[in-house]
């Protein structure tokens, strides 16, 4: 009904979903998503069924110690309790008390009929189900965090919270959503929108279908209809309008008719084609505003038979046809486990919220000394499949691995690639449900969580531990009633939590030694630039630059200790900018002292770096590092091209030479430092 940013809270019978959605002129953009496909009204029914079981067990007249996991008859009894619980849930959603009655349809383990006659009030019901409802709020904040990362949207930017799903009829749901997501410190609305929650998803699907199929407008008597194709929003300042006019009565003949379009400072006509079709092209619309279009349809005799209006909104955030932001989104990041320096880490291939279909190519190096290359694939932190590719034993270390990932609009994932002459392809499928871990395995998972959570701030740690305890309680309850599907899901939730916590063993990208080298490069370059800039009278504040380098060094060190990949990458990015700034001053000074032409100077720098590359290549050959040899060879070819084409250099040639030199220095340090250290130690021993 309006433009804005919305949080959609959808608590149904079996799933919980939350989305952060931005609407502009009927075009929607998903900014954040989260949820749990094993959380919903069913969990509430199960918890209340267990409560009813406790009522029955309190009466010594009945034998009702159920074992649904191992006894088929007990599973039937528990199913009967769930039916009673569902009825009680529905009743207590509209009234404060409910008389729970059953006149013996359930029989205990001795075959005796169980008589239930007990008054239950809403407060008791809410005390039982509150942990389930509480757990939904955490997923809402996860979706908001994604929206913050994607578009800078926080909870305070949300205009309305929209409720959906039958379980939102429960008053406690609306109370907690209001308390946690609305009002002070939350969204801009005082309370969530609670309207048509049982049919709102179907209504949304119908609106979406209508938007995709176009807009139909009738006359008052519904004897004429004009259908417009496409949506009424675009990011272009020139648009197109097309559609079809239909007569729904024999009284109007459209053969030879025409349609007239009028706008502010624009006027045009088009003949009606076969079947009443029409099209207008290159219609100017007002930037960042809504443009009103007035249409008049005339029959073959020139009589006005229909007047219709339509608006077209311009927004730079939309696609050309108002549809770019409506594409499907990837719910969870698609990840590959890779190995570096003997340690494994997860490399994100396709990020969460990527538009679908998505396609990406990657290049890796063969690890060597193996006849099988493994590609462990994950969704978020959950391992879903391991692709195994047999390769000849003689395949050299460092051989290029080409790896392509494609995810279509329905989230079907295919992987293909090559290792030398060996090609491979696979369809990635969801794995079968696994067995519940043993007590020892669960204990190890608990230990990993406790160790990793110590890296969190006190407030974050308390929230995380509360979520951990809720999921663990759900897992143990599921194990107790024999619900392996729920138990397995809960275990995976716990594993994802552990995987996303700061971890002392986690490997960040790039390795720490590369970060340290970047810091050293910046500091040395800052001192050198200060000296040459002073002689050339070029302004340069060495102390301020040094403080900036130190600040980013401290930021990166802290991020590395906390295993915060995002903050670590930010520090590296800032240091690279500082290095580029210093190199810019250096080049300015050098140009002032250098009488060569730009082409001669570029060719000379490329030649000097190429000579250095030869030295580094000899070290790589001596160390048997085929992977580095291959990388150095690529750098050499690039430098040769720069030197050869220096008279007409490509854009960014200077930057290419600088980056080549910096990378060669890093490789040189990797290859030289261990050897130098060993020689120094031998000399001392002698």
Characterise this structure.
The chain is of the alpha+beta class and 686 residues long. The chain contains 14 helices and 23 strands. It has helices at 41-57, 72-92, 122-151, 171-181, 200-213, 439-453, 458-481, 484-500, 512-536, 542-561, 565-593, 598-623, 626-644, 653-685, and strands spanning 4-11, 16-24, 27-36, 97-107, 113-121, 160-164, 215-218, 224-228, 233-234, 238-247, 258-263, 266-271, 277-284, 290-298, 304-314, 334-340, 343-350, 358-365, 372-379, 382-390, 400-407, 413-419, 422-428. The radius of gyration is 33 Å and the shape is globular. The N and C termini lie far apart (84 Å). Residues 674-686 have low confidence and may be disordered.
Strand and helix layout:
Blueprint: E1 4-11, E2 16-24, E3 27-36, H1 41-57, H2 72-92, E4 97-107, E5 113-121, H3 122-151, E6 160-164, H4 171-181, H5 200-213, E7 215-218, E8 224-228, E9 233-234, E10 238-247, E11 258-263, E12 266-271, E13 277-284, E14 290-298, E15 304-314, E16 334-340, E17 343-350, E18 358-365, E19 372-379, E20 382-390, E21 400-407, E22 413-419, E23 422-428, H6 439-453, H7 458-481, H8 484-500, H9 512-536, H10 542-561, H11 565-593, H12 598-623, H13 626-644, H14 653-685
Parallel strand pairs: 1-6, 9-15
Antiparallel strand pairs: 1-2, 2-3, 4-5, 7-8, 8-10, 10-13, 11-12, 11-14, 14-15, 16-17, 16-19, 18-21, 19-20, 21-22, 22-23
